Amino acid sequence: MPIYEYRCGSCGFEKEHLQKVSDAPVAACPACGGNVYTKLISAAGFQLKGSGWYATDFKNGAQPKPKPDAEAPAAKSETPASTAPAASAACPACTSD
Ligand SMILES: [Zn+2]
Fold first, then answer.
1. Mind listing the pLDDT tens digit for each residue in 42-79?
2. CA 10 to ligand 1 centroid distance, Å
3. Span from the CA of 28 to the centroid of ligand 1 (angstroms)
4. What pLDDT is stored for residue 45 in this prediction?
5. Which of 20, 45, 53, 75 is deepest in the core (most CB within 10 A)?
6. DSSP label at 27?
7. What is the model's pLDDT at position 81?
8. Ligand 1 geometric centre to CA of 49 (Å)
9. Separation of CA 27 and ligand 1 centre (Å)
10. Distance from the CA of 33 to the center of ligand 1, in angstroms?
11. Domain ranges, ordered by start, for the chain
12. Distance from the CA of 39 to the center of ligand 1, in angstroms?
């Protein structure tokens, strides 16, 4: 539940109000009852005050990654398998007349 800081434009009274986001803003100054009690936009109730929780994100590590060398070398020429000589159809020992 966020905390809203209010300030009275009439008497200068300031107070933080814990409110639901859906709650209507506090309309009247609790100190003087004036109706210039306004929410201070800059007052954040989310603990975002202070420094450094996001400041370092872009200081380092923002360099683009080097592309991996995607270029493949030239297609390998496959050495053809040693072709065995075709078996001779006729057996020299069997071809005698
Ligand atoms: Zn006031």
1. 544 455 555 555 544 555 555 666 677 766 666 666 66
2. 5
3. 8
4. 47
5. 45
6. -
7. 67
8. 26
9. 11
10. 6
11. 3-40
12. 13
Q: Ligand 1 centroid vs 48 CA: distance in angstroms? A: 27
- Give me the count of residues in the chain: 97
Residue 57 DSSP one-character state: T
CA contacts within 13 A on the Cβ side of 91: 2
Q: CA separation (Å) from 49 to 42, 43, 55?
A: 10, 9, 13
pLDDT at 28 over 50: yes
Q: Report CA(69)–ligand 1 centroid distance (Å).
A: 69
* Averaged pLDDT, 19-33: 91
pLDDT in tens, 2-16: 888 999 999 999 999
What pLDDT shows up at residue 1? 80
Q: How far is CA 53 from CA 32, 47, 48, 50, 56, in A?
A: 39, 11, 9, 8, 7
